[in-house]
Amino acid sequence: MNETVGARRRIGRLVSMLTMVGVAAAVLVAAQPAPAQAQTYGEVAAQYARDHLVGLTYGFPGFDMSYTTVDCSSSAWIAWNSALPGAVPAKDTNDMYAYFLGKPETLIYVGTNTLSATSLLPGDLLFWDISSSSVKNPDHVAIYLGDNQILQTALGQDSTTQTTRGINTNQNERKPYAVRPSAGGGTSSGDLTGATTPGWNTVALANNYISTGNFAIATKPGVRYAFWRGADGRLQQGTWNGSAWSVYSHTFNAGSATYPNLSVAVNSSGWTSVAWRSSTSTIGLAYWGGSSWIVTSVPTQGHSVESDVALVERAGKRDVFWRGEGGQLYQATWNGSSWVVQVPAVSLAVHADSGLAAVADSTGATAVAWKRSATSFGFSYWNGAKWATSSVWTGAGNASITSNIALDDRSGTRDVFWRGADGLLYQATFNGASWSIGSRPVQLGTASNLQLSASTSATGATSVSWNQGDGTMGIAYWDGSQWVTKK
């Protein structure tokens, strides 16, 4: 962003000349399919550039994620800011390059000869000095997208858009060093499981990675997932592989500013699905189909949607529960070929600030829980013949309910979680005959409208997550002998 007017004009003439001599400007006409999980910060940055920056008009937006135009240095910053804020400084091209020269661990010598794709990794930055022949102070930067392509800003041409070009565009003016931005002490292009991420806090990354609602979690052997709605409205995904989090921003929206909370489930194949309340009459759904995410909706057959929704995967079926008109429980079931909407004989006297929680055990038997009052929750489960419903009194004082209700299943044993008046995590356990209630040594804080989510793996390890009030995630899990809290 340090280009002078004269430099921009010269650059514009250069691009026009390159176009005339046949340097292809292959404009991407459609966003590339998002991978299920990005493997590196660089890949996240490159994918964001492909999905959101290609096709934009050239301009000087400043370093701000609420952009409508981009130039070269802002596009590099925006792409990397979506992957790991702070990895690329909010500086003009020359100062950006000087910053990285002071961090030699980020520099990759590429020389001025013809580059091959094996020299670079997605997310790497290339620099040029186009306005002079000294190759001294760079005035242009581009992010490498992979597949021998860079994001090429329009360089001052009126009414033109950002395109992709080959990595050897104007190679005589290219700086001999590419930059691979650092990612929290590890190289960004290394495997995310080996890079230093902000501990368990998947969203200390700020900006669009901040949650506007809950953190919905689900588990499968060796993997823990967290899904949330980011500040830009898109679905965000964190994946814990046992040693580190990788974080990916999906290309589609989930929830809304009014209804930001999500529900997530994992099927027997280990594939995730996410559901959300879109409006007072619609429900959104996204699920991993094996090669891509499929975004659709759940039919409500004209019934109102008066609560957050709860999602369950069971034996080839998918259930979505919600509270509809008259305070009734509604259930939409995907049977493998079509949706069937039912009205179970369950009346929900639901507390005003509560949604639903639902779970299915290994036999496919479902259960639903909800907050009834500050001192009780409702619980209903399918016993094979009918829905059996009860109201469970938690007790006043510290055990009173100051959050939503979270529900999970441990081999047929159901657990209900909530925050007590003392800020601690409380757990009620149903063994099939009776309830036992007690606090756990997990401090959930005092954030208003706290939203909990719970999940138990096939090995019986239970995890609970919550929004800490600043858009970041807290998580606690049972390690076999004690509760461990990470924030």
Using only C-alpha atoms, the radius of gyration works out to: 26 Å
Low-confidence stretches: 1-38, 183-207
Strand order of the largest sheet: 4-5-6-7
Tally of discrete structural domains: 2
Averaged pLDDT: 80
* Sheet with most strands: 4 strands, antiparallel
N- to C-terminal separation?
Answer: 37 Å
Report strand %: 35-45%
| Helical content (DSSP H or I, runs of 4+) | 10-25%
List strands and helices in order, with pairings.
Elements: H1 5-20, H2 41-53, E1 57-58, E2 69-70, H3 72-83, H4 93-101, E3 107-109, E4 125-128, E5 140-146, E6 149-152, E7 163-166, E8 177-179, E9 182-183, E10 186-187, E11 216-220, E12 223-229, E13 234-240, E14 245-253, E15 262-266, E16 272-277, E17 283-288, E18 293-298, E19 310-314, E20 317-323, E21 329-334, E22 339-342, E23 356-360, E24 366-373, E25 376-382, E26 387-393, E27 406-410, E28 413-419, E29 424-430, E30 435-443, E31 452-456, E32 462-467, E33 473-478, E34 483-486
Parallel strand pairs: 1-2
Antiparallel strand pairs: 3-8, 4-5, 5-6, 6-7, 9-10, 11-12, 12-13, 13-14, 15-16, 16-17, 17-18, 19-20, 20-21, 21-22, 23-24, 24-25, 25-26, 27-28, 28-29, 29-30, 31-32, 32-33, 33-34
